[in-house]
Amino acid sequence: MERISPFLSADRIAARVGELAREIVAGLSETQRRDLVVVVILKGAFVFAADLVRALHEAGARTRVEFIRLSSYGDATQSSGVVTVSAFPPENLSGARVLLVDDILDTGRSLRHARTLLEEAGAEVQLCVLLDKPDRREVEIAPDFVGFTIPNRFVVGYGIDYAEEFRELPFIGFLNEG
Ligand code: IMP
Ligand code: MG
After folding, report:
1. Ligand 1 atom 14: the closest Cα is on which residue?
2. Quick one: 20 exposed, middle or buried, by C-beta within 10 A (0-12, 13-18, 19+)?
3. Are strands 84-87 and 63-71 parallel, antiparallel or unpaired?
4. CA–CA separation, 15 vs 166, rounded Å?
5. Which of 106, 132, 135, 144 is labelled catalytic?
6. How far apart are CA 122 and CA 87, in angstroms?
7. Predicted model pTM
8. Active site annotation includes 132
9. Which of 114, 104, 101, 113 is nearest to 77 (CA)?
10. Which residue, 32, 44, 95, 145, could crosslink 103 as a Cys pair with Cβ 3.0–4.6 Å?
11. DSSP output for 63-129
12. Could you report how far apart the first and last alpha carbons of the chain are, in Å?
């Protein structure tokens, strides 16, 4: 595994996910705590979301989980800039409080696109990302909850891939290219 330099350990991630869940629940009304719709962006956010919904439960929220799939990457480490939506199933979002969950906020194109779709469906949306790379931002978008702010380097693990590899790593590491 010399291609990966460890960056965020499984323990550090778990501790931060617990804190995030408590911050998120603290900002919800009693009604919202009873029906928080968590919309997870596939594939990268699936591991983070699995831990986050359990932490949200622990923090006192009841959630409904929905998934959407967006892709802007292909197999490259640079975004193509084109966002495609290959599934948009959530129903009954009118008036719902939605927590939109993604792995990484990079250029911001994917999340801005997803947020717009959910708002058009009548949801009140908050954004939660595990990792934020503010140096890479190309569109204006402000996340409500950020796990870790990180430098502009390519990361893998904890659900995050490089060409579909490394999602299963329990920690997050930097990919050493070349
Ligand atoms: P954005 O539309 O440029 O913000 O794209 C964000 C998406 O790009 C993330 O959800 C990831 O799927 C992918 N991405 C951005 N940076 C990385 C990285 O360092 N490793 C793996 N995927 C990344
Ligand atoms: Mg993604």
Report:
1. 104
2. buried
3. antiparallel
4. 22
5. 106
6. 18
7. 0.93
8. no
9. 104
10. 44
11. EEEEEEEEES-TTSSS--S--EEEE------TT-EEEEEEEEESSSHHHHHHHHHHHHTT-EEEEEE
12. 14
